[in-house]
Amino acid sequence: MAGPSFIIGIIGNVISILVFASLIKTFTRVVKKKSTENFKGSPYITTLLCTSLWTFYGILNPDGLLITTVNGAGALLQLSYVILYLMYAPKEKKIKSMKLAALLNIGFLGSVIAVTLLALHGNLRLTFVGILCACLTIGMYASPLAVMRIVIKTESVKYMPFLLSFFLFLNASIWGTYSLLVKDLYIGVPQVIGFVLGTAQLILYAMYKNKSPSEESDEDLQKEEERSAHLVKEVIEMKGRKEDGDDQITSKNRALRKGSSLPKPPVIRQSSIGKVLRTLSMGPYEQQHWVWFQDEENDHNRDLEGGKKSGSQI
Predict the structure, then answer these.
(1) 97 phi/psi in degrees, rounded to 5
(2) Crossing angle for the helix pair 123-142 and 109-119, nearest 10 degrees?
(3) Who's near 215: CB < 8 A, 6+ residues apart?
């Protein structure tokens, strides 16, 4: 009869594979459009490295069957994502991604395997690979700090999808429980960190889900910009008039008054702030979150473009 650790491990396998497979929809769109759009290749490459190392760890571990199966499946999925990305990425991005993939997934991974098998022996092998895997996973779970900062600054959960946060929290909970049952420190430490950060994300979601600030509509912003441009045009025309005496002075004074009453430039929308912050704070964990961010933004941009086109036809 299967023990509790095996049952928990099976549940963890199912959840983890669902998280890995969540990108199938994204790459189906990439294949249909034959374009990677604004997606970056580094998240898929770094996640391929992480899952490959955990697979190697599972092979070294006598009780690592479930670790091997889930990460082996994850590595195969990530490898397919990397191949598809390289097929449809622009030339410049393709070259950079190929160099990164060669460095990490061939050079670094190959070096780790070679050192482990040739220079290390016994339990030292498991310790060496386990520490590397734990460090990579901690980095993966630490990356949501950038997402949480965006939520706090913008008071909006637009860029922190609930289902993704929930499943990653659930994933950390399950594997954390598994690590306690099998007494595996290298699996347990990263999962505890993931559990804490996942809990913090869900708390933030509960705090801000109903507090998203109402942004100015694009129509209102466009009207304000048009008014500004119209007033500036009036000032330029008034300055260009060649009148004598008091009329000329009056015209200049009127222009100055117009200029001083020009509306201030529209406030930068929070989506732009979020975009800058996300770009500056990318990490390995972006493999899931960044795709969701870009899916949201691309869909939003398409809606705006469709609205502008329909508006121009009226």
Answers:
(1) -70, -40
(2) 160
(3) 269, 270, 271
Task: Give the gyration radius of the chain's Cα atoms.
Answer: 27
Instruction: Measure Cα distances from 42 to 86, 101, 102, 104, 283 in Å.
Output: 11, 8, 12, 10, 9
The token pair at 180 is 């306690």
Kindly tell me if the per-residue pLDDT of 260 is higher than 90. Answer: no
Dist CA 208 CA 151 (whole Å): 8
**Cα–Cα distance measured from residue 305 to residue 296, given in angstroms and rounded to the nearest whole number:** 14
How far is the C-alpha of 71 from the C-alpha of 54, rounded, in Å?
Answer: 6
What separation, in Å, do the N-terminal and C-terminal C-alpha atoms of the chain show? 70
Q: Give, for 246, the enclosing helix (H) or strand (E).
A: helix 245-260
Residues in the chain: 314
Average of per-residue pLDDT across 146-156:
83
Structural contact between residues 137 and 52, judged by C-beta atoms closer than 8 angstroms: no
The pair of three-digit structure tokens given for residue 81, joined into one six-digit string:
């994502």
Q: Which two tokens stand for residue 107?
A: 């050079």
pLDDT per residue as tens digits for the range 5-15: 888 889 889 98
- Give 160 or 233, the one with higher predicted confidence: 160
Cβ(126)–Cβ(57) below 8 Å: yes
Q: Can you list the alpha helix ranges (DSSP code H) found in 89-184? A: 91-101, 109-119, 123-142, 144-154, 162-182
DSSP 8-state assignment for residue 265: P
The residue assigned the tokens 């929930």 is 166
What's the rounded Cα separation, in Å, for the pair 147 and 143? Answer: 8
- The residue extents of the domains of the chain are 4-213+276-296, 228-260
* Residue 174 tokens, joined: 């399950």
In this predicted model, what pLDDT tens digit does every residue of 104-141 receive, in sequence order?
Answer: 999 999 999 999 999 998 889 999 999 999 998 888 77
